[in-house]
Amino acid sequence: MTEALFLKPVFQEKIWGGNKLHTVFGFDLPSDRIGENWVISAHPHGASTIENGKFKGERLDDLWKNHPELFGSNCESVFPLLTKILDAKDDLSIQVHPNDAYAKEHEGELGKTECWYIIDAEIGAEIIYNHYARTKQELMEMIRTDNWSELLRRVPVKKGDFFYVPSGTIHAIGKGTLVLETQQSSDTTYRVYDYDRTDGNGRKRQLHKKQSVDVTTVPGLTPKLEIKTDNYGDSSIVTYLSNRFFNVYEWNIKGALKMVKKDAPFVLVTVVEGSGELVIEETVYPLQMGTSCILPVGIEDWLVKGNLKIIASEPGYH
């Protein structure tokens, strides 16, 4: 029987991080400034480790390379997706990510298109989402003169919101938000502005103004989402996105829901609320907040039981 692949996460300390990954999710953190939890990752800057079964102890990047049968016949050269949970105790830098072509030429990796599910948000929390510059020249001038109030578009956020952030979109997650991020497997970030703050050694973080102007989409585009909800008794499946990068879903389980894999060879799963069980044939796996796993090739259907909310994703190349 094919097993679900449960994963040990990788924690990333950040200048803007906090400790909600412990207080909310119960993770044992190495410090109280953990900004990112890479819960499903095969990226060389932080690869997850398999925690169960036949492949226990193996890194996901090695599994992708050595056991392609688990992931389907259309495997790309690198594992295509990366799932994170972010705790923004403070504001993230104003930033932008390149597309595949620019990232391949300048960074040697994938571009970074991403999306955010807001797990929780404090009252008054907001994000930076896009900009108001009409031309590249205007964008450069606003950045040069630190005219952030006129350049940046601020958007209030609340628990349950969803945002699609294509490459080329100027953005920043604001303080007081807890976010599940689904993205291409890339760690390339170009900082436009970082509030002149310094790290523990009194140094400012590097900015990438030229690269930022190079890759920013001007004028800014706000994609229109076609969110669809399918109800199954008291449970539901919300489809947030379906494109060439990824398909992203929210599974709301109240009781039990039998699910069947569709076209994608494998599915990424992270519990963001509640608890329950994942049942595959005769095997029962406990699920709690923060649990992440991959349902590889060979698992065609499964049952989810309990009272919980899951963000699931699939590669979009099928």
Automatic annotation (TrEMBL):
CDD domains in the cross-refs: cupin_PMI_type_I_N_bac (cd07010)
Residues annotated for Zn(2+) binding in this entry: H97, E114, H171
Record SUPFAM superfamilies: RmlC-like cupins
GO BP terms in the entry: carbohydrate metabolic process
Sequence ranges assigned to domain Mannose-6-phosphate isomerase cupin in this UniProt record: 237-314
Cofactor(s) in the UniProt record: Zn(2+)
Keyword Isomerase set for record: yes
Protein EC: 5.3.1.8
Domain spans labelled Phosphomannose isomerase type I catalytic: 6-117
Known catalytic reactions: D-mannose 6-phosphate = D-fructose 6-phosphate
GO molecular function: mannose-6-phosphate isomerase activity; zinc ion binding
Keywords per UniProt: Isomerase, Metal-binding, Zinc
Active site residues of this protein: R191
Family: Belongs to the mannose-6-phosphate isomerase type 1 family.
PANTHER family attached to this UniProt entry: FRUCTOKINASE, TRANSCRIPTIONAL REPRESSOR MPRA
Protein name: Mannose-6-phosphate isomerase
